[in-house]
Specification:
The chain has one domain: Outer membrane efflux proteins (OEP) (Up-down Bundle). Helix 4 packs antiparallel against helix 5 and helix 9 packs antiparallel against helix 10. It has ten helices and seven strands. The chain is 60% helix and 13% strand. It is α+β, with helices and mostly antiparallel strands and 484 residues long. The strands form two sheets. The protein has a five-stranded antiparallel sheet with strand order 1-7-6-4-3.
Length: 484
């Protein structure tokens, strides 16, 4: 029900309402602060080491308490890799779309703040010619007349209980969510480019080693068949050599498919078409960083965009509870207009044509079929859900860091063993080759030694790629540097 007040009472009514209710909105909903989360002494089930075992001459150190690195991909000391990441960040259509969506959301926020907190003023004009029926007692003639009106109209709703302010706060928090999501998308794009480049280089090296193994296996099979023809070996030995060569050759198409798919994915990440995929990097020229920052859990909560986005979502949900509560309280609006009007232009433009009006209306919801209460309960439930989601996001972040820390330690152990095996196999191969040149062993022994070396080299290539990829994953898991 709305009540219209006289001009005399408008100011007194508005001032009284504002005096009584100005602070009411502050207590309409939760404050939106994130729940307290545990801060573990270490991320994983086991105490994290301060450094990995040395592998390929490099011992990675985990610098606990160090700040996250903004452009972490530069720690790999590869100009070619840096150029790929820079290109992707400049040209990615997905990142550009996310950026424009964020810009649109910010403009929508500005529009909502302007429309909800400031008065609206509109200008209008009207010129009509009208025909009115005559009054029967006065005669049969009708009346023809003109109407000219021009006026300014103003409207303002007092935000007594903070509904508009809370709506703006909710929208601002959601804009922050999009900002953090853009940041996360940018970092994820860089991580995906680094991972794809490392994976492509690793697969290329595996293909080269496997192709050499296939060549050796085919030569070994041909030699075994010749020996079978001479009666030196059994038929099963000849068939076994052919089967081994064929099985090894069958693994090549799968490797080439993975390599091709990875190159296509990398090209798209860079904003290119798949046919313009970049050349593979040299795996040996991608240097594993010797120092990796490990943020303490309290800093991790402030540095990861996914956690910051969950925090902003929580604040938006808290503001929504306040909005739903404020809608259950009175609303006070003020309207005013002034202008000129008349039945002719001279009259409309003269002092006699001045027109104005001013008024206020107050409305209080009384019965809405339980809708307002249900809306508030829904907002509270959404806030509770956002709180639980925040907790889950934090736990998932802790798990992400714990997994990558453990992976790096195990990668170093595996790579160290694979490197030792490769060096040992290479030593055997070199000694066998020297003895072959002296005529002490047959050529088959040289091939066998090289096969052992190439197989050991394949394992070393895999673990080298895994160590580089997991290092990138840990840099990514650390998030952004904590803002002071």
């Amino acid at each position: 029900m709305a009540h219209v007040f006289s001009t005399y009472g408008i100011t007194r009514t508005a001032a009284g309402a504002l005096t009584l209710f100005a602070l009411a909105a502050c207590s309409f909903g939760p404050n939106g602060e994130p729940p307290a989360m545990p801060e573990p002494e270490h991320y994983g089930a086991e105490v994290q080491p301060t450094q990995t075992v040395p592998a390929q001459g490099v011992t990675q150190q985990f610098v606990v308490g160090a700040k996250a690195v903004p452009e972490w991909w530069k720690q790999f000391r590869s100009d070619e890799l840096n150029a790929l990441v820079d290109e992707g960040l400049r040209n990615s259509p997905t990142l550009a779309a996310t950026d424009r969506s964020l810009a649109a959301a910010r403009e929508q926020l500005r529009a909502q703040i302007g429309s909800s907190l400031l008065p609206s003023i509109d200008a209008g004009g009207q010129a009509t010619r009208e025909r009115a029926l005559a009054i029967p007692e006065a005669g049969p003639n009708t009346f023809l007349y003109d109407v000219f009106v021009g006026q300014l109209q103003a409207h303002y709703t007092f935000d007594i209980f903070g509904a508009a302010r809370l709506e703006n706060a909710a929208l601002a928090a959601r804009v922050n969510v999009q900002a953090y999501q853009f940041d996360a998308a940018r970092r994820a794009l860089a991580a995906n480019i680094v991972s794809a480049a490392i994976a492509s280089a690793t697969l290329r090296a595996q293909i080269d080693a496997t192709e050499r193994l296939v060549t050796l296996a085919n030569a070994q099979a041909r030699d075994t068949v010749r020996r079978y023809d001479l009666g030196a070996v059994s038929h099963s030995d000849a068939l076994g050599a052919q089967q081994s060569a064929a099985s090894l050759a069958a693994s090549l198409p799968g490797l080439r498919q993975q390599w091709t798919t990875t190159r296509h994915a990398l090209a798209v990440l860079l904003g290119r078409t798949p046919d313009a995929a970049p050349a593979d990097l040299d795996l040996a020229r991608i240097h594993v960083p010797e120092q990796v920052p490990v943020s303490v859990p309290s800093d991790l909560l402030k540095s990861r965009p996914d956690i910051e986005a969950a925090d902003a979502t929580l604040k938006a949900a808290a503001a929504d509870v306040g909005v739903a509560t404020a809608q259950m309280f009175p609303s006070l609006s003020l309207t005013a207009s002034m202008g000129q009007g008349g039945f002719s232009w001279p009259v409309a433009l003269s002092g006699a044509g001045a027109i104005w009006s001013i008024g206020a209306s107050l409305s209080q919801p009384i019965f809405h079929g339980g809708a307002l209460l249900a809306q508030r309960r829904a907002a509270v439930d959404s806030y509770d859900a956002a709180t639980a989601q925040y907790k889950q996001t934090v736990l998932a972040a802790f798990q992400n860091v714990a997994d990558t820390l453990a992976a790096l330690e195990h990668d170093a152990q595996a790579l160290d063993a694979a490197n030792f095996a490769a060096r040992s196999a290479r030593g055997i191969f070199d000694e066998t080759s020297a003895r072959y040149r002296l005529g002490a062993v047959p050529e088959a022994s040289v091939r066998s030694g090289e096969q052992q070396y190439r197989n050991a080299q394949l394992d070393e290539i895999r673990y080298t790629g895994a160590r580089l990829g997991d290092t990138a994953a840990l840099f990514q898991a650390m998030g952004n540097p904590v803002r002071e």
